[in-house]
Specification:
The protein has 12 helices and 15 strands. The protein is α+β, with helices and mostly antiparallel strands. The protein has a domain of 112 residues: HSP40/DNAj peptide-binding domain. Helix 2 runs antiparallel to helix 3. The protein starts with 6 loop residues before the first helix and ends with a helix. The structure holds zinc ion (2 copies).
Length: 389
């Protein structure tokens, strides 16, 4: 796939554009590249689709926030594999999607054109099932490596008896009397472009042009029943608390065989007993003994992939930060990996035996253990600096 353009650039708006500006910019682009105005022009069609995709993201506060934070990777690519996240995982929007989702933005400008150019065999599906939101709790190790979860989702599914149509059999229909079978009703109203004829989906038949006279007895004509589906969710490495991944088409089934809603997966982080996340970095507080601090040695620290041994240099101060490069979490957009920061603390024994006391007192008289005046008067900032040396 070609490099994706920035959505703000596609619509020609500023990063801080408000909803109204975005809508106006999209309307302008959609009219300019509308297939009715550019028949047979593949380039215009691509631009038309590109604008719809940009509008779909920027007009939705959730998606826009995710896009602002993670770029295109936050919308699709990162997930990889089948049934990717973000809604455009595959080859982008179809013309049918655009008209069914944003048809209203054109007002009556293109009149009947919007159905004719709806493309793809004159399908008139307009029902869409509702979205489902679920939470998934992940361990740091799952976040570090990415994980595939198989989850059973309770939702409405297509009725197996009627195949989702809601009708008892193929002959159980009659032409809709409200729209005369066209699936659309026309009304005259004042729009952005002046007085216009507006077509909208027929409320009686939902755009199918026909009504069921003999409903399916299992779903009572709805085409959907309560059920469940096991959904495989591929979660990319590096996701964070509160991130929402969208699995297209895995939400509730729609009435009468329409388009299913989406499954939105909200990421939750399970706390780790020894590691704290800070962006893509991890922080561990390590306690060492006074003697290790003085003489140096090794210590074991937890990482997301098990335990690691680290070297403690002789003369290590409390507060010293040891950096384990690349031992943090991978960036969700693939921009490298964070570090693990080990913050050293020194355990001071609170009780000493007589023998220990005698030995420490002996040490206290030695030259290296006398506090130099320069250190005594060091201010807090100088001391902080020395930790990071
Ligand atoms: Zn049924
Ligand atoms: Zn109708």
């Amino acid at each position: 796939m070609a490099e994706k353009r920035d959505y703000y650039e596609v619509l020609g708006v500023e990063k801080n554009a408000n909803a109204d500006e975005i809508k106006k910019a999209y309307r302008k682009a959609a009219i300019k590249y509308h297939p009715d105005k550019n028949p047979g022009d593949k380039q215009a069609e691509e631009k038309f689709k590109e604008a719809a995709e940009a509008y779909d993201v920027l007009s939705n506060p959730d998606k826009r926030a995710r896009y602002d934070q993670f770029g295109h990777a936050g919308m699709s690519g990162a997930a990889g594999g089948a049934g990717g996240f973000g809604g455009f995982g595959g080859g982008g929007f179809s013309m049918e999607d655009i008209f069914s989702q944003f048809g209203d933005i054109f007002g009556g400008h293109f009149g009947g054109g919007f159905r004719a150019s709806g493309g793809g065999g004159g399908s008139r599906r307009v029902n869409r099932g509702s979205d489902i939101r679920i939470k998934v709790k992940l361990t740091l190790s799952e976040i570090a490596n990415g994980v595939t979860k198989k989850l059973k989702i309770n939702k409405t599914i297509a009725c197996d008896k009627c195949g989702g149509s809601g009708a008892k059999d193929a002959g159980a229909y009659s032409t809709c009397s409200t729209c005369g079978g066209s699936g659309y009703v026309t009304r005259v109203e004042n729009t952005f472009f002046g007085r216009m004829q507006t077509q909208s989906v027929c409320p009686a038949c939902g755009g199918t042009g026909r009504v069921i006279t003999d409903p399916c007895d299992k779903c009572h004509g709805e085409g959907t029943v309560k059920g469940s589906e096991v959904v495989e969710i591929k979660i990319p490495a590096g996701v964070g608390e509160g991130m929402v991944l969208t699995v297209t088409g895995k939400g509730n089934a729609a009435r009468h065989g329409g388009i299913s809603g989406d499954l939105q997966v909200v990421i939750e982080e399970a706390p780790h007993p020894e590691l704290v996340r800070d962006g893509n970095d991890l922080i561990h507080n390590l306690n060492i003994t006074v003697t290790t601090a003085l003489l140096g040695g090794t210590a074991e620290v937890p990482t997301v992939d098990g335990r690691a041994k680290i070297k403690i240099a002789p003369g290590t101060h409390a507060g010293k930060v040891l950096r384990l490069g690349g031992k943090g979490l991978p960036d969700v957009n693939g921009y490298g990996r964070g570090d693990e920061l080990v913050v050293v603390d020194i355990t001071i024994p609170s009780k000493l035996s007589a023998e220990e006391k005698r030995l420490v007192e002996q040490l206290a008289g030695q030259p290296s253990f006398r506090q130099a005046d320069s250190v005594k008067n060091q201010n807090i900032f100088e001391r902080m600096k020395s930790f990071f040396r």
